[in-house]
Predict the 3D structure of the following.
Amino acid sequence: MKALCVYCASSDRLDPKYPAMAEAVGREIARQGWALVYGGGKTGLMGAVARGTKSGGGKVIGVIPEFMKVRELEFAEADELISVITMRERKTIMETRADAFLALPGGWGTLEEILEILTLAHLEVLHKPVIIFNHEGYYDDLLRMFDRVVEEKFMHATIRGKYAVARTIDEVFPLITGWQHAPGDAKWYQTR
């Protein structure tokens, strides 16, 4: 069974439209016959995507640091709940267990996770699909920043081939299944 790693917010203070979207994403993961790999939490969009996946009959794999378990923040209904010590360990397990990556709206943690995955893709270490779900334009500013990075020549335009942008849930899995690795300009990293 293939697994989709979903990065998203853990906040419960969000507009209800966000958890509703995340639950629908979870149901679509299950409908597509994929497993969910995520941060293991029960709150915010993390909990919503996990509940959506479970309600659709899908498999949920959570990876959660011990300090979050102590605070009783884990999604106890997960089919597999992996406890780790550090956030770095959590990200490594999520990365290795995933066949593709999806960023839903989120805060610093979500941004840090998706940017790390994009960096690995740029460095040609990772060749898996990376999808940014730009729900209602949430990531418009980040995508403009990516354009500026290219315009100012901090990175080559080939970085645009390292991710795809979905604007609706229906666009997510076609982007994943149609993914073709696009070699970038970071080949020099491999020869050093």
